[in-house]
Every structure is written in C-alpha cells, then in structure tokens.
Specification:
By secondary structure, the protein is mainly alpha-helical. Helix content is about 85%, strand content about 0%.
C-alpha cells in the first residue's frame, strides 16, 4: 500500500476511535444499562476489527506509522 494512503488511513482510524468513544459516553448517559452494554460491545468489536485487520497490516508494511498511532496522531 502507498505509504501516504496508509498514513491517512491510520489518522482516520484514530479519529473514528475518538468518535466511537463519544458514542459510548452518550449511551452511558442516556440508555438503559442493557442497551449501553450492547453498544459498548459493538464499539469494542469495531475497534478490534480495525486494529486487527486494517492497522496491523499497515504497521507491518510501515512500522514507523505505529509511532504516529502511539503519539495519538501527533
């Protein structure tokens, strides 16, 4: 994969994780515990899938991009 494209994917993935965290916060405040638990589980699965099947493949090809992730996108 083109490194520049890979860097954008890493950046967008990190941004999506932040947004998904906001979703978890919102449902924690406004949904029943049962509903919130289901949504948290779905968010965790989505993040796990992205990490395993997208980001890890990118990091194998471009290990330096992991540093970008570890710094929180800085």
């Amino acid at each position: 994969m083109n490194r520049d494209v890979a860097a954008v994917i890493v950046e967008k993935s990190l941004s999506s994780y932040q947004l998904l965290g906001e979703v978890v916060f919102l449902v924690g405040e406004s949904c029943s515990e049962e509903e919130a638990a289901k949504i948290r589980q779905g968010v965790a699965r989505a993040i796990g899938y992205m990490d395993t099947f997208v980001l890890e493949r990118i990091f194998k090809e471009s290990p330096d991009l992991r540093d970008y992730e570890l710094k929180g996108g800085e």
